[in-house]
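no rush on this but wanted to send it before i forget. theres a chain ive been looking at and ive put its sequence and its fold in token form underneath. please have a look and point out which stretches look like helix strand or loop to you. thanks a lot i owe you, the record is right below:
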Amino acid sequence: MHDKLLQYIRLGYDFTEEETEAVKRCFEPVKYSRNTVIEEAGKVPNYLYYIVSGYMRLYYPDSKGNQVTTHINCPPGFFTSYAHFINRTRSEDYVECITDCELLRITKDDLDSLVAGSQAMKDFSISVFQQSIAYNENRSRELSALGAEQRYLKLLEDYPGIIQNVPIQYIASFLGMKPESLSRIRRKIIN
């Protein structure tokens, strides 16, 4: 499993053999079944996950008890309730495996140790967090500027496998609409 993470981090960064071994030591391989909540609301997130395979989501329950999906991710990518993981604060979010998932996970202490001991890992980590900030800014812009159908089409363009792997109610929530509205949009596109 480590091979996929190592290929990903080596795309733009030169890691020594020692740094590579440290990454292997610190990232623990784990597997979870679909519909498994791996981080619970009300707690400090224990891990940052690298997705080797599968789909994950971040969600919170609204005041009516509905699950509001704020993020969906697939490989290659890192996933957790980022701000709470980094700041060691209690998260309001759940982290769930939508499908069966193969993951590599790292604790905050181990991540800090890797970053402190490796300039390449420090540079890579900064890049990952910059990408996360850019993604969130772009997502906010899309939610406010694009119509429902445009948001759906953009999602399909960016993540073509999402429809086969993620339940429609999660996709609708992620796109800021009701499942019925998304079903109407899908029917319109098909016709």
The chain is about 50% helix and 25% strand. The chain has two domains: 2-145, 146-191.
